[in-house]
Amino acid sequence: DGEQIKTLTESMDGRLLNAQPTDEEREVWNQVNSVLQDSDSILSGLQAYKGAGQEIRDAIQNPNDMTLQEKAWNAVCPLVIKLKTFYDFSTRLEEALKSLLESLTCPPLTPTQHLEREQALAKQFAEILHFTLRFDELKMRIPAIQNDFSYYRRTISRNRLNNMNLDIENQVNNEMANKMSLFYAEATPMLKTLSNATTNFVTENKTLPLDNTTDCLSTMASVCKVMLETPEYSSRFSSNETLLFCMRVMVGVIILYDHVHPNGAFNKSSKIDMKGCIKVLKDQPADNVEGLLNALKFTTKHLNDESTPKNIRAMLQ
């Protein structure tokens, strides 16, 4: 298996970064590409997110000052529309992930053969994971999001009593607000979306052997690990970004594997060398990997199982 991984790593090294879709891949590739094209604007929108903390505080401290109430409401509404854009994107990402999983796991090819033959789709899968971890790392640092959103919901329910005309409710009605509320309550909302999507994919495709999915994920984790820990590959990384890309993809596939494999990623029977993967992360500057280690701690399902070796748990303490 080690040999296979080494061959796969060599075939992906370099080529993966500019893989072009073959005719067989094109239809799915186009569908996923139309989603990925928007990922940068979603990230820059999140990065630029400035909450309405001050306006909200002023409004709460001066409940009878209508000018301040209005000011807070007018500050929060465009932010809620922005948050809805992010949420809508998560549902598009979910669809894209399902299409990729279908392509990368279908019989009769083995996961390794799929990844070798469909490098453009494998690259898109990696890009989705890279985006997802990047989004969640940013979101974790913006407590204003939940604060703004809960203010919005409180105000809406209060104003409903006063029969105020709320145009924004056409865009974010009660049902949508409930969904968004659950989404943003998660520490890592995009990862949670993808984990659920992968779990649903496995449950819905009863005839597809589970190994097809878990082996695809564990193989990708191994390829990333080999690239990161082998100087002859990692020294070729043109930038810190490529390094981070590889690390985020590795962590992303580990989390998905942990959600869909009945025993998870951490126990002795796992096909992922968790000790090796965590070590690779720990060898990096702490700033680069803090979000990734947190994702492994908080978004996995089996870390705290009895079957997780103590030394692995200790590494993530």
Overall description:
Its main location: membrane. InterPro entries: CYRI (IPR039789), CYRIA/CYRIB_Rac1-bd (IPR009828). Keywords: Lipoprotein, Membrane. Pfam families: CYRIA-B_Rac1-bd. It is a lipid-anchor. There is one protein chain. The protein has 317 residues and is an all-alpha fold. Helices cover 72% and strands 0% of the residues. It has 16 helices and no strands. The chain has helices spanning 2-12, 26-36, 39-47, 53-61, 66-105, 111-117, 119-140, 144-161, 174-185, 189-204, 210-229, 231-234, 240-260, 274-282, 286-298, 310-315. The model has no long low-confidence stretch (mean pLDDT 90).
Largest sheet: none
Q: Any idea what the radius of gyration is?
A: 22 Å
How many DSSP H or I helices?
16
Say how many strands there are: 0
* Unreliable sequence segments: none
Run of helices and strands: HHHHHHHHHHHHHHHH
* Beta-strand fraction estimate: under 5%
Can you give the mean pLDDT? 90
Termini gap: 30 Å
Structural class: mainly alpha
Helix share, percent: over 70%
Shape: elongated
